[in-house]
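[Protein data]
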Amino acid sequence: MRTSLRVPDDLLAEFDAVWEREGIDSRSRAVREAMAEYVERHSRLGDADGAVTAVLAFDYEHHEVIGPLHETQHHYQDVITATSHAHQGEWCLETVFCRGEAARVRELLYRLRNFDGVRRVEVLSLVAAEA
């Protein structure tokens, strides 16, 4: 299927530089790969039922969200098994390790994405195999 889309020139230039540096043979192939990664990243936890293990990594502006963020983490301590924190000036990088019901981990993910001071949240999830 052919499609077209609008992409800012600077984003397209960065995208082209990355796929060319990685040796991918065409922009079309790189776009297909990027789309597949996007679907997997956004649907694996979203489609999961039952127990999962997940890592949520996010960056945020410290002074904007630190209080509410700590409250949120305490609210989800039933699925948060550990956290890791690093400072970079006014921004912080947090990694939250989770284990528990997929629905509860999803709730945490969506809550984190809803903070104004959080720039982005990345997810790595391992879904338990059906017995």
